Amino acid sequence: MKRLLLISSVLMLCACSIPAKVELPPGQDLEQGHRAGEALAGKPLPPQRIRPGDTLRIVRNTGEAPSISAFTANSIYELTLFTVLNDGTFSYPYAGQIKAAGLTPQQLTQVLESKLKNVYQDSALTVNINQAPGNTVFVGGSVRNPASLPVTVTTTLEQAIVGAGGLLSVGDSRNIALLREGEDGRYKTYFFDYRKFMIAGNAGAAPVLLQRGDVVFVPKSSVGNGIEWVDVYLNQLIPFTKSIGIGASYEINRQSN
């Protein structure tokens, strides 16, 4: 009886350590995700949005610049730089505390010009993202080297997967997921058949450009999940319970004698 309880405890412990399986969405939702992915392929990226931690460069288009005798060229440049705080705001002269996170540079330009129109005769200015510390994409799941990778304006989904070492043999190449944050701050999921990127010409899929913050996830195929089951239960669990069973039997028999 004691041996049975011990082995049952081991089984429960090992079951808790089995990696969780990430389920694909139901068939209809998966098809819709693939259609959304096909619509996204080959399209230019949406305008980049400002995030906490970004450094903005804001320059008035007209008006007197500070005297070079009063400031060095370097300090004049620094006067145009503003860092977005963790709460998504920054302070701008005569405009006060401004909420910038989630806006595009063009949208922020309109906000500032509106606030400054009663201060300057011509309030026109230009806003650019000067530095973006979190300029990365994340690649995980059934790839050889899950990692966060730097992203440029020309980085594609295919390049990111190659940069992460490529797909594992257990990966589901037909249902690669791209999670992208929308304007509402929530992720929207797109699905792609990676095999189509390997086809040259018009028959193949168009490149999918990535933007910072994107998450690329490669799920396990049904074969991959089967291989994992074999490895956990046959190669790890059974030998372990056999060794525990022998030791437990010896201890129980010794105590009963």
UniProtKB/TrEMBL annotation:
Domain SLBB: 136-218
UniProt domain Polysaccharide export protein N-terminal: residue ranges: 47-129
Cellular component, GO, one term: pore complex
Subcellular localization: Cell outer membrane
Descriptive protein name: Polysaccharide biosynthesis/export family protein
Lipid bilayer topology: Multi-pass membrane protein
Family under the similarity heading: Belongs to the BexD/CtrA/VexA family.
Signal peptide: 1-20
Molecular function GO terms recorded: polysaccharide transmembrane transporter activity; porin activity
Keywords, ordered alphabetically: Cell outer membrane, Ion transport, Lipoprotein, Membrane, Palmitate, Polysaccharide transport, Porin, Signal, Sugar transport, Transmembrane, Transmembrane beta strand, Transport
